[in-house]
Design goal:
The protein has one domain (3-105). It is of the alpha+beta class and 106 residues long. The longest helix has 12 residues, at 3-14. It has 2 helices and 9 strands.
């Protein structure tokens, strides 16, 4: 994916209305394949103590019909006591797995 495309996707995520970002977990993709290994990223320190590190997110791009990665970034929490719950794979059924997008929790 080109840097310009990644920045455009990141910009779209960062400009989401708070009601969408606070909506809670949503399940998008069901697969029957091995779960990819997590990528560990150590964020650079932030000068704004109110910001929380939101790690890389995998989101479904319906137009491209594939998953895309939104790079990690610092973000101001929508509420004072909010914490970020990272996206994660969950087992569903006997062999299925689903991706649960990250979301803000109280």
């Amino acid at each position: 994916m080109t840097r310009t495309m990644m920045m455009g996707v990141l910009g779209a995520i960062l400009t989401m209305a708070p009601s969408q970002a606070e909506a809670g977990p949503r399940v998008h993709v069901s697969i029957n394949a091995p779960i990819p290994a997590p990528v560990v990223v150590v964020p650079a320190p932030t000068r704004a103590p109110a910001r929380i590190w939101v790690p890389d997110q995998v989101v479904w791009d319906a137009r491209m019909r594939r998953n895309v990665v939104i790079p990690g970034h610092w973000q101001v929490a929508p509420r004072a006591a909010a914490t970020w719950v990272p996206g994660h794979w969950e087992r569903r059924g006997r062999n299925g797995r689903v991706w649960v997008e990250g979301y803000w929790a109280r």
